[in-house]
Amino acid sequence: MDFWRRYRWILLGIAVSLPVHLTIMVWLAAIVIERPEPGASAVRGVDVALLPESALEQMLEARLPEVSQLPIESIDGDSDPLDLPDQPVAGGSSGAMAAEGWLSAGTGDLLNGPGAGSGRGDPGMGTGSGGTSFFGLRARGTRFGYVIDKSGSMAHDGRWVRLADELLRSLRELPETASFCIAFFDTSARAFPAATEGWERSRRSGIDRFLRWARNVSPGGGTEPVYGFNHLLSLDVPPDAIFFMTDGEIPPEHGSSILAKVMRRARPIAIHCVLFEDRSPGQFAPELRQRAEEEIDLRLRQSSESGDMERLVRLAMELRQGADGTPRELATAMRDRLNVRILRLLAQETGGAFKLVPYGGTP
Predict the structure, then answer these.
(1) What structural domains and CATH numbers belong to the chain?
(2) Which sign does the torsion angle of CA 208, 210, 212, 217 carry?
(3) What's the CA angle centered on 69, arms 164 and 125, to 5 degrees?
(4) At a CB cut-off of 8 Å and minimum separation 6, what does 363 contact?
(5) Whole-structure pTM over 0.90, yes or no?
(6) What is the C-alpha to C-alpha distance for residues 337 and 185, in angstroms, rounded to an integer?
């Protein structure tokens, strides 16, 4: 009896499943698969949308937090802050760039004393090289450092305005594959970007960030460039070239210190030196300049120092102390000429160039 009951259930299962399977087979047989025509490409086109570089930069910058920047107080100076024009102005005068429309606040770094900073390394600019010029001195590479005098004397005779125009022109001449770092110095140094950031790309957005930061920089203080050099030389990725600009007599020992720091590096760094020279009437008569040069040559021949820079620095320091009985007017002229020689030798020894930029009179 149990046998016949199980047999009936098996027959019932077969009767139900057989129509279902036959239906599925008929449906699958009706499906048509189209094959590609002979010679037709099996790869279908892919639509790609390319955004312009400016749009990509805005998208990236929109994700970055805004960095606040404390105002920079002027020291011993009543001049206007650094006034950088948005566009070149005919005649060399500097226009004003309004604060509206600038992309973001910069991030400066105050460097007190000769301490070393730490950079974030190479921002990945590739291996290409370009170049720019600064007061007619040209350099090539991918990373450019600027050591710029912001001492109190820069506020006079249009020097600050002239510097601003040339600095902005130099930055805009940089290829977009390059980067820059700028250290303003007086008795300390203030750098853009900050030591933790290292280098700023020379794209429009990077230059605009510098302009925003630089509006609060104004002349004031003394003339001690070694702190600006310390910042650039302490970065994880060193500069390919440095533009050094000053308008006054630097401490002579700074010349030898800077040269020693650069020459100790495994890869040479060219220093291009620009000196603003006062040509105002009565500054130094031609006869006094000539006498100062002759006296310098005489004393250098009598010096026991072994190196050219050491002889220049020792003589300049002796004249500063005023203990050798040299008449004051002659000593002042000799120090002025020695300053020129120290900067010229600094450029020469590092593979750079030197240029005098006159102001206050005829060239």
Answers:
(1) 136-359 (3.40.50.410)
(2) negative
(3) 65
(4) 279
(5) no
(6) 22
